[in-house]
Amino acid sequence: SKQFNPTEFEPAQWAEVTKKAGMKYMIFTTKHHDGFCMFDSQYTDFSISRCAFKEHPKADVAKYVFEAFRKEGFMTGAYFSKPDWHNQDYWWDYFATPNRNVNYKIERHPEKWEAFKTYTHNQIGELMSNYGTIDILWLDGGWVSPRNNQDIDMPQIAAMARAKQPGLLVVDRTIHGKYENYQTPEQKIPEHQLPYPWESCVTLTTDWGWVKNPVYKTPNRIISILMEVVAKGGNLLLGVGPTAEGLIEQPTVKRLQEIGRWMQKNGKAIYHTRITPNYHCGNVWFTADKNGRTLYALYALPEGETLPAVIEWEGNVPERGTSVRLLSTGQRMKWIERDGKVAVTLPAKLAGSTEPIALQ
Questions:
Q1: For residue 79, what are the β-bridge partners?
Q2: Which of 2, 59, 239, 247 sits between 20 and 30 A of 21, alpha carbons compared?
Q3: Does the predicted TM-score (pTM) go above 0.85?
């Protein structure tokens, strides 16, 4: 932490790049399990604003990140890890127990657990008080919960946070109940549509933070994931890791730009849409506009394949005389229906294309 010095830190670049990708909300990691704070906490010196970066004019990193994204119209969310491996009242180095959980018996040291609860409440209070409007409090570390005898008093935390931030969404992830306003499957997509709000948390590479020589998902893969998530009624939270210098690097920018170009042309089939009962057939995912009058068919292109000349699906048969159009250009497509199967002929110029498409 003493060496951490992201001298190229430019949150306006993060906000611009992600906005152009078509993103509408953000979750910033204010503190992960290691306990290192990306905000200026008065309750620890283990933070970005007390290390090598402390003389930088933007040393209170969280403040400038949230400001930059708000300026671009984003909803802002604060990720905060409930477990804290740096805090001696959670992970006491008197016991060298290599475990993710609290490593002492709480019933034997209740005063330590009370001190940790106070620390957690105080830090969340700082985030809810000192950083402008926060829309989402995204709490990680589901093993810190009453069911594991690690009760940090969520009713009090939620009441305090909502008093400071009216309308706040709280995500006490994996702890089902009234403090999990939406659920957060990680690195996967639910098998079916779900009867409650949710988002899939998926990384652009194979890792949550920046890594050396990353293995990237292709823009096509991310778009396909997005199609499936939205057809099933969820949001996609895409993990992007800036470098230790504080920049989103060029290979990431390039991929986000490609996703953004697709979203500009096809966003109507993604934003403000509704789920449909018959939402999937083969490589095709379906969404509907909010009035239910227009159905969108999103063709998820398998990796390494090109667009076929004809796209087919069963069910969701348009009424006779209905036009089927390419969403990106408005061009009308020829389509036929036979025995409940729909076949749409794509224009010759699209044959062999490697870009997924949307029809309306």
A1: 29, 138
A2: 59
A3: yes
